[in-house]
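Problem: given the chain below (92 residues), write out its structure.
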Amino acid sequence: MLFVIGGLLLLPSMLSRGETFASHSYETVRVAQGDTVWDIAARRASVREDVRDLVKTIRVLNRLDNNARIFPGQELKVPIRQNIGQTRGEQP
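Solution.
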């Protein structure tokens, strides 16, 4: 239940930017060597989204502290965007 509460607390800031994330929908991403939470968020954020908001959401979903240390092979929950659009990680 903590997951839903955390997702709902962050949802209003995402909605104000025109992006919506389901509070219960996420994909599991395996951390690769050299990845940071910022890198993972930047690859999945839409061009209109503030990457910092997605970083914060990933930190909450995965109960990461402010340092957001992650390790190769670790699996992270990353919210799935409901409003599908081009992400920063996609080539036009």
